[in-house]
Protein 1
Amino acid sequence: MPKRDETYMTITAAKGFEKSNAPFELFDQWLKDAEKSEPNDPNAMSVASVDENGMPNVRMVLLKEFDETGFVFYTNFESAKGRELLASRKAALNFHWKSLRRQVRIRGLVEIVPDEQADAYFASRARDSRIGAWASQQSRPVESRFAFEKAIAKYAAKYAIGEVPRPPYWSGFKIIPLEMEFWHDRPFRLHDRIVFKRPTPSDQWTKSRLYP
């Protein structure tokens, strides 16, 4: 685990912050650090959305891909988060790496990934996970565990031979950030916070420091 002074230098160093892709480079650096120190799922993130009544909703998912265009995860589009993100096309993400005392908050716009990209990722999943995507009516009531297992058996038999195709309701969301905030712990709760913002995805980032 990096010492706190080393973490401080990482976020406050001026080098590179003037570049248009600076927040993505910093995120990439922090994620790689987390992959070395987090005991479980360094790519875990919370995804926040709102329902049709304006009530907030949040849950944990796994980041599967990211680049300078955005952050991608995959899900059932008929689930609660799927319906909410399709309706609003806006989302917030949060990464918290306890071992590093670091956090990244992201807010932005939501796009659906191309079918070819979703197909490629779905094909890379374990076969049982692909069967589960067909069997699970995610977020909807199920009468018993047995009913779910019966659905799993049904689709396992249906796709016993050959490839398991991607369900039409299963795909990926890309969150295109308009704001990325990097936080890390400092002694006596005098934390460090740097935020990058841009009005639209085509604009340049601006950087500012926030009070903890």
Protein 2
Amino acid sequence: MNASPSPIQKSFVAKPAEVHPQRKWWVVDATDQPLGRLASRIAMVLRGKNKPTFTPHVDTGDFVVVVNASKVKLTGRKLEQKEYVRHSGEPGGFRREVYGDLIERKPELPVLKAVRGMLPKNILGRQLLTKLKVYGGPDHPHAAQKPEPLAAPARAAK
């Protein structure tokens, strides 16, 4: 009995050369959006997980421009309690700053740090982060790329 072999469906694997011309630019207004939810949406677009051509080891994502980062919403008492800490490695080199002060001083940093934490911790993650542009105010210099507004996900009715 010689059965004919069943047709084989091959998996799609994106190649870096094929991805580059298809990149889009998105703009996100961070006004009154929760920081974590905003960061997870941005990380999905940067990785390309919103596309059918997603490949884990290839950068298939798009560029994202975030405006009004200074107006991002932190729920609860995170403005007073959440801290940004770093250490230089020297004795006495421990520095801490509350997120409320950090947003006033550098409004881009909380959004940048939140998105960085949601990307892979390797060379690909660092490459993906270069496609993120964050601005504290409403203006950005990327108008020539014609960024489209990234629609907010549909909320389920209660």
